[in-house]
Amino acid sequence: MNISELNAIAKAMVAKGKGLIAMDESSPTIAKRFKQYGIDNSEENRRAYRELILATPDLNKYISGAILYDETIRQKTKDGVLFAQYMQKLGIIPGIKVDAGAKDHAGFPNEKVTEGLDGLRERLKEYYGMGARFAKWRAVITIGPGTPSTGNIEANAHALARYSALCQEAGIVPIVEPEVLIDGAHTLEQCYDATVTTLRAVFRQLAEQRVAYEGTILKASMVISGLEAKPRAGVNEVADATVRCLLNTVPAALPGVVFLSGGQGNEEATAHLNAMNARHPKLPWPLSFSYSRALQQPVMDTWRGSPAKAAEAQKQLQRRARFNALAATGTYQPQMEREAA
Ligand code: 13P
Fold first, then answer.
1. What separation in Å is there between the alpha carbon of 22 and the centre of ligand 1?
2. Distances (CA, A) of 67 to 96, 97, 110, 299, 305
3. Is residue 177 annotated as a catalytic residue, yes or no?
4. Alpha carbon distance 98, 294 (integer Å)
């Protein structure tokens, strides 16, 4: 492991005013998303859609890196260039999702544990050879009656730490993603407690597994009311609670924190990130985005599998990427949504 190389990659991932796009939907997830918009889930449509994203004009002004899925990193543009190479030319760092999904945790009803450690050393070596310089592993933590449990948090944190150590050994920056799910009617305070407990466990396990914080990026969920909560906390409350949670748990040595959108609306996810940066301009780490749905929803909705709509869909992506890049420096304004429409 070369910590200064990992640190340089991690810093580039969270360069000022830039964020990541998660386009690493697994086969079952992309099938679900395509179905929502009536898009035929053929291999060619998956390829064409990912090319549409990467070929969006000016994407590299706002996006530092993109997280790919195993199928995608093996695919090529219509001109025959591997996506990872195409991205390198644009200065967009290729990343790769390496977990094998969240599965039912035996003995822990209603909780999930993420699998995928078997054979990971070999897979990381192959992905490095293909150009990947960072990876992602997502754990899910569920708020409900009696959950999250200590046993579930520890199992997920341990797996995240084992994965991170293997990534760093391979010269790949691990994105550590413990997602506290937004599903449910829980309050902001319940989400705060679950997130603090989870992040404490994650950073303790990372330290025990000898993972270098300087070569690690946290992908966090925001501290937010559950989707069914009434009332739901406002933008400033979410921003302040999330920042307070991070200050109490995340080591200052970490190069950066990015957020997932996790089922928030597109504009909501942008407004929350912006409020954090506008209200808390002096934090130990840059706060940026690594959204999938909050960047891609309008793109899929416009494209719907039609080549004639590709340029218009790319405009949608450019717009959301630009707004989120502004939010990463606290300079986004909600009225921009109307001006640019
Ligand atoms: P969402 O932004 O849609 O939550 O996806 C981010 C992600 O990569 C989840 O692992």
1. 6
2. 5, 6, 28, 17, 21
3. yes
4. 22
Residue 219 annotated in active site? yes
Q: Is the pLDDT of residue 25 over 90?
A: yes
Q: Which fold has domain 3-340?
A: TIM Barrel (3.20.20)
Task: Read off φ and ψ for residue 56, nearest 5 degrees.
Answer: -65, 125
Strand partners, 180: 141
51, 111, 177, 214: the catalytic one is: 177
Ligand 1 atom closest to Cα of residue 293: 3
Tokens 């592993």 map to which residue? Answer: 137
Q: How many residues does the chain have?
A: 341
Question: Which residues sit with their C-beta closer than 6 Å to ligand 1?
Answer: 22, 138, 177, 260-262, 291-294
How far, CA to CA in Å, does 285 sit from each of 15, 166, 214, 218, 255?
11, 24, 11, 10, 6
Structure tokens at 254: 């970490």
Q: Which residue has the tokens 């109307």?
A: 338
Residue with CA closest to ligand 1 atom 10: 138
Domain boundaries defined on the chain: 3-340
Confidence (pLDDT) at 339: 79
Write the DSSP assignment of 281-333 as a string of letters. ---SS-EEEEESHHHHHHHHHHHTT-GGGHHHHHHHHHHHHHHHHHHTTT---
Q: How far is the CA of 221 from the centre of ligand 1 (A)?
A: 9
pLDDT at 1: 74
Q: Is the model's pLDDT at 66 over the cut of 90?
A: yes
Are 39 and 300 in contact by the 8 Å Cβ rule? The answer is yes
DSSP state string for 178-205: EEE---SS--HHHHHHHHHHHHHHHHHH
Tokens linked to 94: 């290729």
Q: What is the mean pLDDT of residues 47-67?
A: 98
Q: How far apart are CA 219 and CA 246, in angstroms?
A: 11
- CA 176 vs. chain centroid, Å, equals 9
Residue whose CA lies nearest to ligand 1 atom number 4: 262
CB 159 within 8 Å of CB 137: yes
**According to the model, what pLDDT value does residue 113 have?**
99
What element of type H or E holds 106?
none
